[in-house]
Amino acid sequence: MAVPKRKISRAHRGNRRSHLSLQRTQLVRCTNCGAMIRPHTICKACGHYRGRQILRAAND
Ligand SMILES: [Zn+2]
User: Fold this and answer.
1) Degrees, nearest 5: CA angle 50-27-55
2) pTM: predicted TM-score of the whole model, two decimal places
3) Which residues surround ligand 1, an ion (CB under 5 A)?
């Protein structure tokens, strides 16, 4: 268990916790079909990644 050497002030504690908030998931547009996808992932709608077809198209 951590034993406090000195009391952390509310401001000091708040400054530390200023980086702890949850971030909204970042989304970018697929360059092939324009769907909103997470960066650095294959597009689920068309199966493209970095301009290349990776997955087979859904209507194949
Ligand atoms: Zn796409």
Assistant:
1) 40
2) 0.53
3) 30, 32-33, 35, 43, 45-46
The residues with which 36 forms a beta bridge, in sequence order, are 29
- How far is the centre of ligand 1, averaged over its atoms, from the C-alpha of 28 (Å)? 11
User: 18 C-alpha to center of ligand 1: Å?
Assistant: 35
- Break the chain into its structural domains and give their ranges: 24-60
Distance 24 CA to ligand 1 centre (A): 21
pLDDT in tens, 5-48: 889 999 999 999 999 999 899 999 999 999 999 999 999 989 89
